[in-house]
Amino acid sequence: MKKKIFGIVAILLIAVVTAWNVNLGSKTTGMSNVMLANVEALAQESNTPPPSCSCSKKCDDGKTTASCTGYSSCNCSSGLFDVVCDGVTSSCL
């Protein structure tokens, strides 16, 4: 009789310890503020539309080019050696 009681107590003890370990392992701490900021930044970057215009000019050396891409405006005839896209100038000089 004592062996049966000891066996039942041992089985219950093993079940309690197992349930406690499962409960500890299933707790999540959630995402930190840094992780949430990174996810938000990545989501915003993916919503950026692709550039809508581009310009390029051959430089005098014949090997290099001045080029740019823009979202709203591209000016390929702004000067002899430059191109301008969205107010940013790219030049051969």
Total beta strand runs = 5
* Distance linking N and C termini: 98 Å
SSE pattern, N- to C-terminal: HHEEEEE
Low-pLDDT stretches are none
Give the overall shape. Answer: rod-shaped
Number of helices in the DSSP assignment: 2
Structural class: alpha+beta
The major sheet is characterized as:
3 strands, antiparallel
Strand content: 15-25%
Trace the largest sheet across and list its strands.
3-4-5
What is the averaged pLDDT score?
82
Rg (C-alpha, Å): 33 Å
Helix % is 40-55%
What layout of secondary structure does this protein have?
Elements: H1 2-25, H2 33-46, E1 53-58, E2 65-70, E3 74-75, E4 82-85, E5 88-91
Antiparallel strand pairs: 1-2, 3-4, 4-5
Describe the structure.
The chain is an alpha+beta fold and 93 residues long. It has a domain of 39 residues. The radius of gyration is 33 Å and the shape is rod-shaped. Strands 3-4-5 form a three-stranded antiparallel β-sheet, with no helix packed on it. The protein contains two helices and five strands, in the order ααβββββ.
